[in-house]
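Input sequence (303 aa), recorded before submission:
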Amino acid sequence: MRFKGLDLNLLVAFDALMTERNLTAAARSINLSQPAMSAAMARLRGYFQDELFTMSGRKLLATPRAEMLAPAVRGILLQLQISVLCQSAFDPTQSDRRFRVMVSDFMTLVFFRKVVERVARDAPSVAFDLVSPADAGEEALRRGDLDFLILPDAFLSNAHPKAILFEDTLVCVGCSSNEELYGPFSFEKYMAMGHVVTRFGNPHRPAVEDSSLLGFGMERRVEVTVPSFSSIPPMLSGTRRIATIPLRLVKHFAAMMPLKVVDLPLPFPAFVEAVQWPAQQNTDPASIWMRQRLLEEAARTDI
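Predicted structure, token format:
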């Protein structure tokens, strides 16, 4: 099909090339032969009067013109998929939809596993791909590579719809043998002790709790940085270090290892977990159904 002289099938090829950045992989992703994909790329270059892609080894490097076109092309294809191809009624009992969700290990342990359990009963063929948090989450939403982001609300932008799941309380935790946690626990003691901290994506991005400390113009002495929440409690065992983590996570690990919990000696804001989804999926029946499951399960979640 042509529109103003452009074969619209070429947009599918262009999107595959932008996604895969490899001619062979792009061809495979849309079931074309490599010669057919090469021909499509030549036709794209002719229509747009631009090289669009240059070779660097086996990798395709996009030109500025291709980078400018990519968001609009992806948006058109996603809107077509959602508005035209996927508007039939969603039947969870029959669907084999696979949801791709960016979620931390903390939320997987205390919340999302319950969602998976419920969905397994209500929609046995619905599946999930869970990916670890990264800095490119918003871009992945825009590109349609993710169905949901489940992260602290402070890490979500206003570029896509979102909803609050629940609030948690941040507490200070250490090994039960840590004598510093018995007796008065002052702000000065909190700042003087060594800390274990989780950081996702950019290692220089502050942790959620750092925003309050930065407001005081102070910085903790971080002695151990780990890539996941579940790595924190083992790093406290047998040491005099402490960590600032959600109370739900402490309760999860309390049955497995001896931990001492104390209230934080300064007013940290509530730890707010939220879910965000692509704007282009706002009316997608499957996305709406999944959002309802998430919100209903969140309403059942107690500290």
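Checked by second reader. The chain has a mean pLDDT of 85.
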